[in-house]
Amino acid sequence: MINELPKEIATILQSTKKDPVQFEEMIRPGGYLPPEMDLMVDAISALSMGKNILLKGPTGAGKTKFAETLSHLFNQPMFSVNCSVDLDAESLLGFKTLSYKEEKQVIEFVPGPVINSMNYGHFLYIDEINMAKPETLPLINGVLDYRRTITNPFTNEVITAKAGFNVIAAINEGYVGTVPLNEALKNRFVVIEVPYIEGEQLKQLIETNTKLKDSKNIGLFVKLSGDLINAVNQGKVAEDAASIRALLDACDLSVLVPPKRAILRSIVDKLDEEREREFVKNLADTLF
């Protein structure tokens, strides 16, 4: 199954290495700008060949925004599944309910995100896929491989995905409640490693995605992010501390409250360890 890109994007994709700036302009405003344009090119290439992609990286690195940007570039609406230990067949596929038709009570099947995305030929986004119980996801193995089909256990209907359907999943490894993906599931994906956004690209992200316009403070928030990422890499703080999502919240809040208080509310107070909270507060005191 080949998912065709709009012609103008396909043309730009072919010339990305020659003119990456032109491609970046297509993604803006508000879209995901990867640290390396190869990440976007590889993801688009895989999806256009009908392959599923697994976005792998730390929390707050922009995986959901990456998926939304891909959906936008393909002009494909996207159904979403948020995985948890409570995820079951009904959450994925749909459920039966009582309704009325011509004044008679009937049992009706209400399709879930997997069935809807297959029937409409849209994208399916499975967030935090490794939060689901290992026995749940094999229900959609046939959806994720070359067959692109499923037998709906609630109706016994065999459903084959329409052209355009594809799957993007995201994974945060090493968190409480997560489980390793089994090999059968992992082998159904092309893996795209999503690192933190840093430097000039983070500056652009703050400028386009937050209400903060003060160039000095934007520079200080970029420096804070870089220091937090280094601290994560050195094992001084948890990955949550370097979440880009949390940083953008802090940037927004800093328009109305002092930056250090914005950092306290958006980043510090989310951390569990007092040692980590003090570390981030000290960084904020130094910069702001």
Major β-sheet, in short? 5 strands, parallel
Low-confidence stretches: none
N-end to C-end Cα span: 53 Å
Secondary-structure arrangement, i.e. CATH architecture of the largest domain: 3-Layer(aba) Sandwich
CATH C-level category of the largest domain: Alpha Beta
Which strand order does the major sheet show?
2-5-8-1-9
Query: What order do the helices and strands follow?
Result: HHHEHEHEEHEHEEEHEHHHHH
Principal-axes geometry comes out as: globular
Q: By CATH's scheme, which homologous superfamily of the largest domain applies?
A: P-loop containing nucleotide triphosphate hydrolases
Mean pLDDT: 86
- Rounded to the nearest angstrom, the radius of gyration is 21 Å
Query: How much helicity do the residues have?
Result: 40-55%
The CATH topology of the largest domain is given as Rossmann fold
Helix tally?
13
Total tally of structural domains: 2
Proportion of residues in extended strands: 15-25%
What kind of assembly state do the chains in view correspond to?
Answer: single chain
What class would the helix/strand composition place it in? alpha/beta
DSSP summary, beta strand count: 9
Pfam family, one: AAA_5
InterPro entries: AAA+_ATPase, ATPase_dyneun-rel_AAA, CbbQ/NirQ/NorQ/GpvN, P-loop_NTPase
GO molecular function, one term: ATP hydrolysis activity
Domain AAA+ ATPase: 49-198
